[in-house]
């Protein structure tokens, strides 16, 4: 029987992807087209660094190459960024700050704590999808304080999240536990998602999106039979379902006034 391709439903684009959002990264471009060399400042250097990593990967980033992309010598960058480590911290700050420009993410929980967490989660996922090569940095750079958990690197967002929970009836202990569970969910899911797109999470990792052509699958007949299903990208639906489940568990925590695990 020949499948009629006209009857195959079109897969909708991932609603959090740059394509579905109608734009790509929201970082400041390295220089406006047709206007010549733009004045050099820290903000422009960081925007160019994000663009460079998006195009070439983190491993390719050096001060010399970044300077060349801006049309300056590497030494000119050190006036604004003391070194590569400070540059990477600035890159993380730049992409996390995109949350402030996301119209669907609110700094205050005007629609309730669940709506707040749901909007924030999708905002962080949009950052991961717009900058998959940068996102491992968001997960691994040293935080502003030892108790700040990635991927919410901003103290302002952590303050907003905790305020939303406490103002909605969470005890202090339950609010902290919810913050930790929420951060762990985002970090684990989104690191796995970018890894499946071929991004190296660490220098020692082999990206999950790169197939191992040397593996003999003949001993795994069910894996071979289900390969098409296993290969489907259901990331958006899985993220939404897992987020809904987490919010449901946290509502139980709020209602019962307990800490998860007690």
Main attributes of the structure:
globular; Transcriptional regulator, TetR family; 2 domains; 11 helices; mainly alpha; 262 residues
Average pLDDT, all residues: 84
How many β-strand stretches? Answer: 0
What CATH architecture of the largest domain do you see?
Orthogonal Bundle
Biggest pleated sheet: none
Q: Could you walk me through the main structural features you see in this protein, from its secondary elements to its overall organization?
A:
Residues 62-81 bind DNA. One of its GO terms (molecular function) is DNA-binding transcription factor activity. This protein is mainly alpha-helical and 262 residues long. It has 2 domains: 25-81, Arc Repressor Mutant, subunit A; 105-201 and 229-262, Tetracycline Repressor, domain 2, CATH 1.10.357. Helices cover 51% and strands 0% of the residues. The protein starts with 17 loop residues before the first helix and ends in a 6-residue tail after the last helix.
Summarize this entry quickly.
By secondary structure, the chain is an all-alpha fold.
Could you outline the blueprint of secondary structure elements for this entry?
Blueprint: H1 18-21, H2 42-56, H3 63-70, H4 84-96, H5 113-130, H6 135-140, H7 155-167, H8 172-196, H9 221-225, H10 227-231, H11 235-256
Helix pairs in contact: 2-4, 5-8, 5-11, 7-8, 8-11
